[in-house]
Every structure is written in structure tokens, then in C-alpha cells.
Amino acid sequence: MATKSGTKCLHEGYKPTKGEPRQLPIYQSTTFKYDTSEEMGKLFDLEADGYFYSRLQNPTNDAVAAKICALEGGHAAMLTSSGQSANFFAVFNICETGGHIIASSSIYGGTYNLFGTTLKKMGIDCTFVDQNLPEEELAKYFKPNTKAVFGETITNPTVNILDIEKFAHLAHSHGVPLIVDNTFATPINCRPIEWGADIVTHSTTKYMDGHAVGVGGCIVDSGNFDWNAYADKFPGLTTPDESYHGITYTERFGKGAYITKATSQLMRDLGAIQSPQNAFYLNMGLESLHVRVQRHCENALAVAKYLKANDKVLWVHYATLEDDEYHDLQQKYMPDGTCGVLAFAIKGGREKAIEFMDKLKFISIVTHVADVKSCLLHPASHTHRQMTDEQLKEAGVDADLIRLSVGIEDVNDIIADIEQALA
Ligand SMILES: *Cc1c(COP(=O)(O)O)cnc(C)c1O
Question: Which of 23, 392, 404, 406 is 20–30 Å from 288 (CA)?
């Protein structure tokens, strides 16, 4: 049995037996064949389990989702076409027009826009909060129509660490689930469900894929949230769905209610499915996730220490550093390390930052993080350039913050590249 994460990376999800392919097959098929009309009808009524159309489900995708589910210690999971669609589905599955969510203001810029702008157009309000406030302060932001609380294990790009237990307690004492985006930590370094999170999301585009090959996302449900205990808040799960002859998800599917609804309603209607080809690449990435993450963390810590000791550097933020303000939370939630991403600023502000970045040799400027090759980005000029200075401040993104994603190259070469650019 696969008990350790490193073994799960290789053996969960797809388990071939006698004469079956050693590697996960790509079911490159839009549809699936049945012998009788009755068999097919049962699938449409959710009375039988099975595949019928790859806009809803595909066997390659499901094997990969099952692997991620096992890594996170969840009950059920699904792949989505991107991290954006994962976070959208995770919220929209339980929150409709007239609803409200609470999210940390330090989250990824794309998610900030999704929650603050696009969900707003759909009649869903989001209150962004400072995740470091004490629980009593955060409690003041709840409204009768609040449906979920959202945060990132390690925030992108500020690499702050979420106090998951505090957020879980806060959400649960108000009868709503905690959704945690675990993209940066990955289940190798942190499993939010063990700390009380109910739903975990991923941009698999980052470390899980790891090679900058395919955009993708994943939603994992712990199965732990008791929707029926707060039935009035979550009618989509606890009252009949007329588009499936009046079945009630919690009644019919129990712990599987949340993912079944997201698949049979949201995937059916919105179609943000990952292609099976991309799911295959994602699985290849997952097979070495535990090895890569460890190396990313070792390299990033060495680079963080180097930067910290350099007098051209203004500040470095990497929670594994002993004097970092998030070190205690790092020790509690991810003692083996955080991720390969760190944030720092060099003296001379915005101008010097850009000059430094342009001088780098193999560390490249790309709109990406968390893959095997080192890269960096200046959020104020790139990912977050749509934000006002006020919003940047609220998100904790200094105008001189450089986000460095340390890859798995030889660490001496990485440091040498930084050194020549600083000079
Ligand atoms: C990149 C990212 C996303 C969005 O994922 P895509 O796959 O680019 O859609 C969401 N959350 C976090 C933390 C990310 O880093």
C-alpha cells in the first residue's frame, strides 16, 4: 500500500493489473459506447456510474484527479482546465447570486480579479481581509449570506503563510467551509485538510505539472463539511436539482455530494474540462513531484540566505529563514519546507529591479512560477499591473517586490547568475 506521499506520487490513481499498460493511457475520446439505450439513460439520471461525454468526465482525468485526491487525503476530486476554473467552480458550486464570500487580500492576482470583479458581475460579493488579523476581528466580516472563506496556503506572490487552523475555526464557527488554494505548498509540504480545510484547490500548472507544459487545475473535497447541518445556506446541495429529475445531492451522494454536483452541473454547463492529453502530462509531472519539491526548497533556502547576506538587497522574504515573520507558521504547517518561490527587493527601487532582471542570463523573465527552470517576475509591472497602488498595498505587494521562482538547476549556477546581475 502507498502510505507515503512519495509512493502515492507514483502509484495512486492508476493501478494497472495483468497485461494492462504500465503508463496511464490517454483516453483521447469525446464519447463512450453503451449497448442499450437504457444503460445510457441511467447515466443521464445519475443512477449509474460511467463515462458518456468528455465534457463532463474522462477516465484519464479521473485517474489523475484520484492521485491528487490521495495525496491531499481527500474524499473526491476533479480536474479542471485551469487553476482559475478550479477556484471559480469551488466557490460557484456553493455560492450563487446574492451570496457573499470572505477571502484573504493576499491571494494570487488572477483570483483577486475573479472574486472582486467577475463574481461581482454575477451578483456574488467578496470581502477581502487581512489574513493576519486575529480571529475576533475577522469574525466581524461575516454576513447572513456568507457561504465560504478562502485563502492560499502560501500566498502568490508575497509568500505569506496562512494560519489554516485559525481560518478553519473561523469558517466552521459561522457554518461555512474553508477553501484553501494549496498550489505553492503542494501536498508534499502541506495537506490543508489535516488542519481543518474542507476543500482544496490547485493550479496544477505550477509544481504539479512542474515543467511549464500544460495549464490545469484541480478541486479536492475532504467530504468533511456537513452541508445538511446548514441546509438553508446550501440549497444547491440539499434541495432537489430539477435538471436531474429532482435528485438531492447530499441525500444521494453523501460525502461525494460536492464533487458530484460540480461535475454533473458545473462541468456539464460550463465545460471547463482539462484535455486528457494535458492530464497525461500532469500525471508525468506528479510522478516526480516529491523529488522536485525537495530540491526546489533546498535551492530556494540557499538562494534566500545568499540574498539576505548581500548588501545590495533591501529585504528577503522566505518563511524557512529563521528570522522571517512567518517562520513559526512555516514550522507548524510545513516543517519540511515551503516551496521554491521567494520574494525580495533590491536597493534602488523599481528602476534597479528592472535593470537587475534584464541582466540575468538563464534565470528568465516569464509570467510563470513553480517550474523546474528558475524564473522571475516583477508583479507591479507584470501580473498585478491592473491593480491600483491602493490595491497593491492591500495585497501586500510592494512596488519593488521581485518574485523569484528558484528552479532545480545546480544552486551554485543560480547564485552565480544572480551575483553577476547584481554586480
Ligand atoms: C497560477 C495560480 C492560479 C491560477 O491558475 P491557472 O492555472 O494559471 O489558471 C491560482 N492560484 C494560485 C496560487 C496560482 O499560483
Answer: 404
